Amino acid sequence: MDNNSFLSRSLALARRAPLSLVLLLLVSASLSIAVSFYLFLFVAAPIPRPPRKSEKTYKTILSDGSTSESKPLRSWLDNYAALKEMARKKQMPADEAYQISDPEIFMSVVVPAYNEEDRLDVMLEEAVDFLEQEYGDAHDEDGVARSTSTTATHKKTQTANGNGTSGTLHARVPSSSPASKGWEILIISDGSSDKTVETALNFARDHQLSRTTKLAHPTYIASGSIRVVSLEENRGKGGAVTHGMRHVRGKYVVFADADGASKFSDLSKLIQGCQKVEDKAGRGVAIGSRAHLVGSEAVVKRSLLRNTLMHSFHLLLRLLTPPATSRIRDTQCGFKLFSRASLPYIIPFMHSESWIFDVEMLMLAESAGIPMAEVSVGWKEVKGSKLNVVWDSLGMAWGLAVLRAAWGVGVYQRD
Which residue spans traverse the membrane (predicted)? Predict the structure, then answer.
């Protein structure tokens, strides 16, 4: 029997079949496809691993120039999650639980770093110059932040918190005098195999002792201003940034690439942009943007392949992301600022740990109704990028499609 005869007989049988049977087969096929697609997404969608014990500690340089032992890295997210669980169990009023703890300092800087021993010094030099000039320090000699706020803190003790351990939890009471000074830098070494950690600690030591040593650029910083966190294995840029943002103490939080490509002093522009759009709850996001540089010499000199992939990715973003996110002209610039009040609506729900994590952050902000502002910043091309233009571009496209689908069909959900 040839193919034409088989097809003819199949069509004839389909015409003679009852309509109800045809509909049943169509519904069954549709359900099978839908279930298969959901199961595929359930397997393919990334699920971040929990942080390990050593990753919830940090090292810093003490006032005598020695390196500290590993110290516990406090997490606002752990406290926030435990308070939410208490509110869910009616153990405390919800309006006391669903708030993040007050800031201790004005600015937190999160720097993801993977094998950045050659480029980190330059970025840190520019950063500490600006931060020290603009915000001073808020640390004592042991690296403990001195809060400039006069926050009243409500304490509620329970025998078992959200992690099943005893402890005292703190619920925020809005401060009448929020932190306006002080800064910190959290360097998240993302499973580095070079001397990234040593480079960061040596930089901190040199600048803390700069009053007694001869440096070419002697910007003095207080002990404990720079904290270094070591991840046991590489998680990806998104995983490193998210991990750092779980432990920040600032009223505002910015993440900045370790290569120093973004003009760090433009942080003031991000703050102004964020403050202009903040809602009544103090939530806001400012997105550093290089869109104004399209057509500039730095972009024109890029290869045809790189520019083609860039424009293709932007088209994909417009097609797959929700309205506010799709209107952002540059989602991938590694210089973004978040108000502290916006963090609980974004950080607990992050899944992507790859290059596409920026987009997930912006989508989460949009879904929570957090205002966003795109702000033009200075930028320069820096050698030593670890981005593989072709493979990472394909990976970002795949990651975006999986991310959008996972949120769309309910594989990922907010609490």
Answer: 21-45
Backbone angles phi, psi at 394, to 5 degrees: -65, -40
Helix residue ranges per DSSP H, 164-296:
196-208, 237-245, 267-277
Instruction: Give the torsion sign (CA, 31, 36, 42, 46).
Output: negative
- What gap in Å lies between CA 406 and CA 109, rounded to an integer? 30
Considering only CA atoms, which of 252, 287, 224 is closest in space to residue 100? 252
Report which DSSP code applies to 326: H
Residue whose tokens read 């981005």: 387
Q: For the CA atoms of the chain, what is the radius of gyration?
A: 25
The two three-digit tokens of residue 375, written as one number: 């702000």
3-state secondary structure 256-321: ECCCCCECHHHHHHHHHHHHHHCCCCCCCEEEEECHHHCCCHHHHCCCHHHHHHHHHHHHHHHHHC
- Between CA 261 and CA 213 the distance in angstroms is 29
Q: Is the dihedral of CA 346, 352, 355, 360 positive or negative?
A: negative
Chain segment 219-262, per-residue pLDDT in tens: 788 889 999 999 999 999 999 999 999 999 999 999 999 999 89
Cα(197)–Cα(202) distance, rounded to whole angstroms?
9
In angstroms, the CA 277 to CA 293 distance is: 24
Between CA 352 and CA 189 the distance in angstroms is 18
Which tokens belong to 312? Answer: 């293709």
Bridge pairing between strands 167-172 and 71-72: unpaired
Residues 2, 38: Cα–Cα separation, whole Å: 38
**DSSP sequence for 381-396:** --S-----HHHHHHHH
Question: b vs e for 303-335, b when ≥16 Cβ sit within 10 Å of the residue's Cβ?
Answer: eeeeeebbeebbeebeebbeebbbebebbbbbb
